Amino acid sequence: MAYCFISDLHLQEKKPEVTKAFLSFLDGTAKEAQRLYILGDLFEAWIGDDLKSELSYLIKEKLLFLNRSSTSVFAMHGNRDFLIGDRFCEDTGVTLLEDPCKLDLFGRTTLLMHGDLLCTEDLEYQDFRNTSRDSKWKKEFLGKSIEEREEIAEELILESKEATNLKKQEIMDVSPKAVEEIMASHNAELLIHGHTHRPKVHSLKINEIPAQRIVLGDWDKSAWYIWMDDGTC
């Protein structure tokens, strides 16, 4: 069985070249896998499953076709598309995963995460994350008009980018302590995540056992993905 992992595509109308690359990926590489895992931030912003746009229709149609033809698709919320819900899953056939998600990959206990939960030193972001994941906040936000939600989303993204420019790079990366703690608590030998846009394979030890942390890159300039087939990565 072949597994494929991607994250941080940040699909948006303003970057048609990324959408084109993703559609090509779905028509090619993704079809060769039995399972495709999207580990958050498929979209630059997802303001609710009632969103009607050319991009959303196109992506949903392609994911549904992939699910029905060759590949089971799984997705996880990111910090930009955490409002993906049941209707999106019904429209696409996508299975929504918890974060973290534990699975067995060719005998290796593996954790899948978006990665933002590991950035524990970014207290400002963690506060926002806790607030925006609250059911009351989501209900209130989704009760607004699409136009209002789009405006709020644009403001939040702009504020996030401005805040990022002012923060130290170390704060926005994952905390080694957080990585070790969550991997140890799940007895994980492998952690795969995105979010930081810093693709790299990290070697470490968890409970005195050799382990790995593989970080996916974003799709702004390159179509990053992880391919695992019969234990080979």
Automatic annotation (TrEMBL):
Matching Gene3D superfamilies: 3.60.21.10
PANTHER family named in the record: UDP-2,3-DIACYLGLUCOSAMINE HYDROLASE (PTHR34990:SF1), UDP-2,3-DIACYLGLUCOSAMINE HYDROLASE-RELATED (PTHR34990)
Example GO biological process: lipid A biosynthetic process
Organism: marine metagenome
InterPro entries: Calcineurin-like_PHP, LpxH-like, Metallo-depent_PP-like, UDP-diacylglucosamine_Hdrlase
GO molecular function terms noted in the UniProt entry: metal ion binding; UDP-2,3-diacylglucosamine hydrolase activity
Gene Ontology cellular-component terms listed: cytoplasm; membrane
Sorted UniProt keywords: Cell inner membrane, Cell membrane, Hydrolase, Lipid A biosynthesis, Lipid biosynthesis, Lipid metabolism, Manganese, Membrane, Metal-binding
Name of the protein in question: Calcineurin-like phosphoesterase domain-containing protein
NCBIfam families in alphabetical order: lipid_A_lpxH, PRK05340.1
Domain Calcineurin-like phosphoesterase: 4-199
Keyword ATP-binding appears in the UniProt entry: no
Pfam families, per database record: Metallophos
SUPFAM superfamilies: Metallo-dependent phosphatases
